[in-house]
């Protein structure tokens, strides 16, 4: 199996960059698109690894700082949707998500309703922010007494 940042054998190279790290009960992502399905699949594999490391019964929030572009074709959005839905299947639970706009982000107004709908479909609160500090404060509020 390739490393999380590498494409599956025989596929196109990843377009777009998504880095992911765990910071206590917050999983932080930094994405710079536009993205293709290979980039989203690599992100999904890395997220699955991090989520697997959350203690059983644990809760977490994802904060994604997005820059450059969030445009992606339908197959990439479908892969993101599948990744988000998979986080509801394990013993730990994602209880919130925030995307932070880092400067001018192509497609922000167009695609924010799409990601909002993905999270709404699984009853996970989602918010878009222009400021990372505000997103972090919101995430800590969502986490409540389980904040890192």
Report on the structure:
- There is one protein chain.
- The protein is an alpha/beta fold and 148 residues long.
- The chain is built from four helices and five strands; from the N terminus they run E-E-H-E-H-E-H-E-H.
- The chain has helices at residues 37-52, 74-86, 108-120, 132-143; strands at residues 17-23, 26-32, 59-69, 93-106, 126-129.
- Strands 1-2-3-4-5 form a five-stranded mixed beta sheet, with helices on both faces.
- Helix 1 runs parallel beside helix 2 (74-86).
- The chain is globular and about 35 Å long.
- The chain starts with 16 loop residues before the first strand and ends in a 5-residue tail after the last helix.
Largest sheet: 5 strands, mixed
> Helix count?
4
- The secondary-structure element order is EEHEHEHEH
Strand order across the largest sheet = 1-2-3-4-5
List key phrases describing it.
148 residues, 4 helices, 36% helix, alpha/beta
Task: Please outline the helices and strands.
Layout: E1 17-23, E2 26-32, H1 37-52, E3 59-69, H2 74-86, E4 93-106, H3 108-120, E5 126-129, H4 132-143
Parallel strand pairs: 2-3, 3-4, 4-5
Antiparallel strand pairs: 1-2
Helix pairs in contact: 1-2
What is shown here, in short?
With 148 residues, the protein is an alpha/beta fold. The chain has helices at residues 37-52, 74-86, 108-120, 132-143, and strands at 17-23, 26-32, 59-69, 93-106, 126-129.
